[in-house]
Amino acid sequence: MTRRVVITGLGWVTPLGSGLEGVWSRLLAGECAIAPVRSFEAGTFATNFAAEVRDFDLGAFMPEAARHADAPVQVRFALAAATQAWRSSGLEAGRVSPRRLGIYMGCGEGPPLFEPFARSNLRAWRDDERVCDPRAWEEAALDLMPLEAELAQEPNLALAHLGEAFGCQGPSLNCMTACAAGTQAVGEAFEIIRRGDADVMLAGGAHSMIHPLGMTGFIRLTAMSRRRESPGTAARPFDRTRDGFVMGEGAGMLVIEALEHAQARRAPILAEVAGYGSTADAFRITDIQPDGRGAQGAMLAALRQAKIDPREPGPDGRPRVHYISAHGTGTPENDGIETRAVKGVFGALAPQIPFSSVKSMLGHLIQAAGAVELMTCVEAIRTGWVPPTINLREPDPACDLDYVPNAARDLRARGGVDVCLSNGFGFGGQNDCVCVRRFAP
Amino acid sequence: MRRRVVISGAGFATGLGLGRDALWAALVEGRSAIGALTVVDGAALGVTLGAEIKELSARDVVPKHYRKAVKVMARDSEIAVIAASFAVRDAGLVTREQDGVAPTYPAARVGCQVGAGLIPTEIDEVASAFSTSRDEEGEFSLAKWGEGAINNLQPLWMLKYLPNMLACHVGIVHGCEAPSNTITCSEASGLLSLGESARVIERGDAEACFSGGAESKLSPLGLLRLISWGRLARGEGEARGARPYDPDSAGTISGEGGGILILEDRESCRARGAKAHAELLGFGAAHSARSLSTLAGRSGGELDSTGLAYAIDNALHDAGVPASEIDAVVPQASGHAPTDRAEMAALRAVLGARASSVPLVTLTPALGELVAGRGGVQAGVGALCLREQRLPARVHAGRPEAGALAGAEPSRPAALRRVLVCTSSMGGSNAALVLGAA
Q1: The whole model's pTM is what?
Q2: Considering only residues 407 to 436 of chain A, which have any Cβ-Cβ distance to chain B shorter than 8 Å?
Q3: Are residues A426 and A299 part of one domain?
Q4: For residue range A347-367, what is the model confidence (pLDDT) as tens digits?
Q5: How many domains does chain B fold into?
Q6: Which tens digit of pLDDT belongs to each residue from A129-163?
Q7: Are residues A132 and A279 in the same domain?
Q8: Are A200 and A346 members of one domain?
Q9: Range of the domain at B212
Q10: A161 in contact with B, Cβ within 8 Å
Q11: Can A261 be counted among the known catalytic residues?
Q12: Would B303 be classed as within a structural domain?
């Protein structure tokens, strides 16, 4: 007998701010956080804009921030998000047994110090032989690249910081499945509770790749928008003129919990995690299966677990899924294939399901994206509103579903939002989907 | 009714050779791969010893149509792909890599969970591009980089170094469309991946999974990163490195490599007439209470041992096996003295007085610290101990603390029914498996 799992706490740090309600209202208002990069001199980069988290101070979130002063930026984001989630769930020491409290992060690597790295390489570079002299490189690196900055790149540092800050002694894992990691972390955390290996899990993602090397990597992959003249409208998922995603940064953290544990401590139950599906394309390192088979498989698996037939309308005549948070990166490839996949899953009902991408406003939070986007699904259930896809002006004939273009939608008169899917797909062909549902005892 | 999970295949790529037989024979003979490094010159970092893989080419094992992809494989990915290829053959599985033969399982029923590290970029590759981004004084110019020098980096550069590329390449070669994941928890990555694979099979989401991990830190940037963890023996200390449980061990010695195992639903494995090496009876994970002290520069001397003790306890509980039935342990045994002390304390907490009489299978002196690659190798060797009813030799042992059965000893036959495999990690994750005779 597997257990039911509910969401009892939410917290995020996003380019549109850090308060749960503030960010949600900005998303509903269609605000965009994308602007020229300020954190480094990106003027000459083909993509010189991003959605940055501005004026972030961990001390504003937790009194003991000084203990984490050496934590890299994405870990500080995760700490702030987790603190909000923890408080909103009403958890405090003594309310959960440490051995039954785990943590599953989809945290990305920390930013490298780019210029010291570049200079170390140049000191060791031998123009005539076109190789680096390793000893010269090592001497330069010891001189220019502080060891603490190397350690700070390790992706599991979030576990070290969050685990100690919140007293977790249950299972702790960090996954790196590129842009799917946030979704996957919550999904696997859900499985851990469902099976009984923990009662409460802190789960989510955190990442920042807004640094020269991160931007370089995606520029070379030609995955990012190059609309330098109009950053605010550069992220245009599902639009015919879309030319790539826009980088964001931040963290999304959820407290998820066994139902009986949440009930016993009278925790606020925000929604139920009803299903999780994970597949791999196993196709090519650069491309998605053109038929969207892997994405379909992930959605179908999540729906099967939630016992929802995607092709059968509910008693009210509406599709049983009321909102899909798209992976919706704004790359030409993703949006067309994701659309095809949604049609493959929902058949004739697909055009009736609002299916939007908040990446049009927040940018792509990479490993944090899935967790933040899942949180928007919980907010949709709570408020009855769904967020828009902004910058959608010229419909792409290949993208012909209801992307909630440009304006948020109030679904309360139609019965509100009870069931949502959140999609997260990653480079390498990783597909994850989490289904959340309004909690009903 | 919970589905039972077996280890039906094991593939290794380590300094002691490629494949199951090569590793087992070397461990039984008592060979160590630790020696003078040739694949990387780490002299300026104080690192001259390591356990390297002398010849490594994924090109030799991938199907012809996939050879082009080897160009965008980092060394870590090559290790994983080679280990996976040996594992498939060892398990007698047919995957889609073999043309014209029906795969044992459809791709939708095969998963892939791989432990990986942060893959260090090859410095020649980036330096070559940086060299085109110098200003008049010969200094690096970020403006010139963005303007055009950036284009001298190969387009797929980043894809080569994403940690999930290990699982991705293995999945593409063999056809793994069921759940796939990449766990990055330093030394615990491999065992956590094996635990997750077991759960995926148990809950019915796959019949078989490729699982384990691989990593290589044997490159200038890799070694620098490993040094930043504060666990590596360097300089004069190298001669006293990788001596598990010896209070005078000066740190660990870097190796490279990994192990990919085939985990399989026991009934499915039986139905195809295959004989498993061992059964995976239980898995446990737990986080260290003082996890920040695992980070270099933060430790106040002793490391927490309760996290590892809890992980082991959870695994025993999951397996339904009392601690008194553990016949041998394949521990981390890294040679980093604080880590080893905490590990012995955890073993004593769980095994009680038996901790000093249960044989420890210490692999680091033979293979070096494999980091994310260690879990697949530890669990694979544990399974082979059960299969062969034998303990490998212990080498390069130093003088272990009193009460740790870790001194030098030749290989010997042993009656083994249950083997415990465990590790702690930099970062605070701990993981354990309980294996049983198949």
Answers
A1: 0.98
A2: 426-430
A3: yes
A4: 999 999 999 999 999 999 999
A5: 1
A6: 999 999 999 999 999 999 999 999 999 999 999 99
A7: no
A8: yes
A9: 5-119+162-437
A10: yes
A11: no
A12: yes
A322 is catalytic: no
* Cβ contact B310–A99 (<8 Å): yes
Please indicate whether, in this complex, the C-beta atoms of B108 and A160 are within 8 angstroms of each other: no
pLDDT of residue A230: 97
**Residue B225 and residue A153: Cβ atoms within 8 Å?**
yes
CATH number of the structural domain spanning residue B187:
3.40.47.10
Whether A399 is catalytic is: no
Residue A337 belongs to domain with CATH number: 3.40.47.10
- Residues A227 and A177 reside in one and the same domain: yes
The values of phi and psi at residue A13, to 5°, are -130, 115
Number of domains in chain A: 2
Among A150, A170, A199, give the residue marking a domain's end.
A150
Comparing CB atoms, the residue among A141, A280, A428 nearest residue B177 is A280
Signed CA dihedral, B218, B221, B222, B224: sign only = positive
ipTM for this prediction: 0.98
Task: Name which of B123, B144, B183 to mutate to probe chain A: the one with the most chain A Cβ atoms within 10 A of its Cβ.
Answer: B123
Instruction: Name the band, by pLDDT with cuts 50, 70 and 90, for residue A94.
Output: confident
Same domain, A131 and A279: no
Cβ atoms of B291 and A159 closer than 8 Å: yes
Categorize the per-residue pLDDT at A169 as very low, low, confident or very high, splitting at 50, 70 and 90.
very high
pLDDT at A93: 76
Statement to judge: residues A218 and A140 lie in one domain = no
Q: Which domain holds residue A127?
A: 114-150
The answer on pLDDT for A116 being more than 80 is: yes
CA dist A42 to A21, A49, A110, A210, A229, Å?
32, 8, 19, 10, 14
**A361 phi and psi angles, rounded to 5 deg:** -110, -40
